[in-house]
Design a protein that fits this description.
about 375 residues, alpha/beta, Aspartate Aminotransferase, domain 1, Aspartate Aminotransferase, domain 2, 13 strands, about 35% helix, about 15% strand, disordered N terminus, EC 2.6.1.9, histidine biosynthesis, amino-acid biosynthesis, histidinol-phosphate transaminase
Length: about 375
């Protein structure tokens, strides 16, 4: 088992001064205790190769061009004493090419988490109704709740099938915002552009936020719709397929009116210089990206075949770069996997996902070695 973080809470008898009490809605939130295998894995360096498959990051380093341009910049300047290029202008123009969206409909952010936060801060008031199909990416929910918004969860019986009807049923004229992740984390369900289009049309007063963190893997996107619908925001990231999770770069696409509103609190220097340079370099090497995407597709085929022949495990091979496994004893499976150097994400506490773990998919060569280890945990039929 991975070591649990020990969090020391200092409890004092005297109430804290008024000025250091969190604001209304934030008081209601529970501090986020991030669980990542990173620390455990770092402590194990030197033993047999480790599979860090718990956070859906790319399993290989980014394009070598990323490192080259960052090293070049650090060596040749302009120096890091200067603020970064404002609003990541050069990167934004390159993103316009990549996405086929006009530059005045794009905004670069410090990871897509930053985009989600910015959206909530700009558009959500106390008591606003926010519809969220669950299970979902929980950071968004926290950002929305910190503004005092009311979350209306939408849960369907089959978490791995389209939930459009249930979403429609949950929406009312009062719905301020709908948060959709496609492919969804952690279920992999894809929201098709026709469905997004209908929702934008039928709920013109609802802001529809489409989180496409895994777009590159599914190749299904609603981003083209931002030209036509003034109530749609699409967010994306360099953290997954591009392999730049450590740099923190994301972006959003939306109607210029939405951007005008967001820019009231947007910080144009929130993306650091090296992150901007790294993301630009990654965009300049789409061959590298596409090779990785092909590897992940082939790996998913191998895993589908593998799990079909195993007992005691049900597998969903998603349109993203992860699979969901349902096992009979999560704790025991996690213990066995960690014993073999395989770190995955426990998702069994999510309603409807009892017994489920999520596992990132990497390259073919990695998957071959992974399957060797998985064979020891999941016996043949
Ligand atoms: C990983 C992930 C993100 C986070 O992206 P960053 O750009 O690293 O902040 C956002 N949304 C979903 C659904 C994710 O899975």
């Amino acid at each position: 088992m991975g070591k649990r973080e020990v969090v020391l809470r200092i409890v004092s008898d005297t109430p804290p001064p008024r000025g250091v009490v969190a604001a209304g809605p934030v008081r209601e939130l529970v501090p986020y205790e991030a669980v990542s295998s990173q620390r455990t894995i770092e402590a194990l360096q030197g033993s047999s190769p480790i599979f860090k498959l718990d956070w859906n990051e790319s399993t290989i380093p980014p394009s070598p061009k990323v490192q080259q341009s960052i090293v070049h910049h650090v060596t040749n300047g302009p120096g890091l004493n200067w603020y970064p290029e404002l609003s990541s202008r050069s990167l934004l123009l390159a993103l316009s090419d990549y996405t086929n969206v006009r530059p005045d409909q794009l905004m670069v952010t410090n990871g897509s988490d930053d985009a989600l936060h910015l959206i909530c801060s700009t558009f959500l008031d106390h008591d606003d109704e926010v519809v969220v199909p669950v299970p979902t990416y929980n950071h968004f929910v926290v950002f929305a709740q910190s503004k005092g918004a009311k979350i209306v969860p939408v849960q369907t019986e089959n978490l791995f099938a389209s939930n459009i009807e249930a979403i429609r049923d949950a929406m009312t004229h009062k719905t301020r915002l709908l948060y959709l992740v496609s492919p969804n984390n952690p279920t992999g369900v894809v929201a098709h552009p026709e469905m997004i289009e209908e929702l934008c049309q039928d709920f013109p007063n609802t802001l529809i936020v489409l989180d496409e963190a895994y777009f590159e893997f599914s190749q299904v996107t609603g981003i083209g719709l931002v030209q036509r619908f003034p109530n749609l925001i699409v967010t994306r990231t360099f953290s997954k397929a591009f392999g730049l999770a450590g740099l923190r770069v994301g972006y959003l696409a939306a109607h210029p009116d939405i951007l005008e509103n967001l820019s009231r609190i947007y910080n144009p220097k929130s993306v650091n210089t090296l992150a901007q340079i790294g993301a630009l370099a990654a965009l300049s090497d789409l061959d590298y990206l596409n090779e990785y995407l092909d590897e992940v597709i082939e790996s998913k085929r191998m895993l589908r075949e593998f799990f079909a022949q195993r007992q005691g495990v049900e597998a969903w091979i998603t349109a993203a770069n992860f699979v969901v496994l349902r096992v009979s004893d999560v704790k025991d499976t996690l213990r066995q996997l960690e014993g073999l150097g395989v770190y995955v994400r426990d998702r069994s506490s999510y309603q409807g996902m009892e017994g489920c773990i999520r596992m990132t998919v990497g390259t073919v060569e990695q998957t071959q070695r992974l399957i060797d280890r998985l064979s020891k945990v999941f016996p043949e039929r």
